[in-house]
Amino acid sequence: MVALSDLLDDVVADVDALFVFSPSSSYYEQFEDESLDTPVVVVAPENTVDAAEYIELPLEFDNVRDRIRFGIEGAMGNGVVEEDDVVACNVAVFGGDHDAVIRVRVTEEMRSGIYDLFANSRADPSVIRDVFEVAIELGKKGQKGKPVGALFVVGDAGKVMNKSRPLSYNPFEKSHVHVGDPIVNVMLKEFSRLDGAFIISDSGKIVSAYRYLEPAAEGVDIPKGLGARHMAGAAITRDTNSTTIVLSESDGLVRAFKGGKMILEIDPEDY
Ligand SMILES: Nc1ncnc2c1ncn2[C@@H]1O[C@H](COP(=O)(O)OP(=O)(O)OP(=O)(O)O)[C@@H](O)[C@H]1O
Ligand SMILES: [Mn+2]
Fold first, then answer.
1. Please, which residues have CB within 8 angstroms of residue 58's CB and are 6 or more apart in sequence?
2. Which UniProt keywords apply (predicted)?
3. Tens-place pLDDT, residues 133-174
4. Band of residue 34 on the pLDDT scale cut at 50, 70, 90
5. Model-level ipTM above the cut of 0.90
6. Close Cβ partners of 252 (under 8 Å, ≥ 6 residues apart)
7. Which of 7, 22, 240, 250 is 20 to 30 Å from 220 by CA-CA measure?
8. Which domains occur in the chain, in start order?
9. From the CB of residue 100, how many other CB atoms can be counted at a distance below 10 Å?
10. Closest-CA residue to 142 (of 195, 190, 212, 206)
11. Candidates 195, 213, 229: which one to mutate for ligand 1, based on the most atoms within 8 Å of Cβ?
C-alpha cells in the first residue's frame, strides 16, 4: 500500500535543482531554509524575493511546458544546470497557488534559442512572442493550404527602414496597427504572399510591409543552403539592433537571427 505522499517523493527524489516559478515572498521563505541541500532557482518576471539563482521570465507563458522549458533554458545558459541534470519544477498550472511539481530531465534539445530570443532582444518580449506566433501559425497552416515564406524584422525600425527600400506601396503607411491584434494577424498572413519583409517597431507597430532589405552581408555566417531571404534576414540583424524571425517556404522551418547569427531553428509542427 502506498501513501499518497510517496508519489511526490518519487517526483522529487535525487533532483539536482528545484525550480520555483513566480513565488510570493511568503511562499519562497520556506525554501530559504539552509537545511534544504538542493539549489533553488527562481523563475519569475521580477526577482522580488531576492533569490540568489534567478531567471527572468519576460512573459507569462500560459503553456506550462513552454514556461518550464524557458526557465530551464535560461538556467542552462547561466550554467546553473546542465544536460542530464534532473530538476523538479514547482508551478501554478491553474493560476494562483502553486499546485504542481513536475520532474524534468534537462536535455541539450532544450537549448532551442528561445530564451535568447526573448530575453536579449531590444523589442518588447510580448512583441517578439506575437510575431513568433504568427510565424509558427503560418508555418503550420500555410496560406490557403500552400506553404509560404515570411520575413519579419522586429525592433530598431528606423534604422531598418534606412537599410531597406520599398518594393511596392506600403499597405501600413497611415495605419497604426500593432502585432497581436487579431485583425492584424490576418493581415500579416494575407500579405505574407507578397515579396519582401515586414518591419515592426520595438513596441509592435507595423511600420511597413514589402521592404527589400539591403544590409551589408559581410561577416554574416549562417548555415549553408539558406537563400536570399535568410541571408538578408540575418545580415540586417548585424547592421541594426533588430531581431528577425523567418519562415522558410522551402523547408517550413522558423528561424530567428540576432547579431548576424542564427539563434533559433524550430519546426512549427513540433511547437
Ligand atoms: N533582401 C531581401 N529583402 C527582403 N526580402 C527578400 C530579400 N531577398 C529575398 N527576399 C524574399 O525572399 C523570397 C525567397 O527568396 P529565396 O528563395 O532566395 O530565399 P530563401 O532564403 O531560400 O527562402 P525560402 O526558404 O523561403 O525559399 C523572395 O521571393 C523575396 O520575397
Ligand atoms: Mn528559396
1. 45, 118, 119, 125
2. ATP-binding, Manganese, Nucleotide-binding, Nucleotidyltransferase, Transferase
3. 899 999 998 878 889 999 999 999 999 999 999 999 999 998
4. low
5. yes
6. 139, 147, 267, 268, 269
7. 250
8. 4-116 (3.40.1380.20), 121-266 (3.40.1700.10)
9. 13
10. 190
11. 229
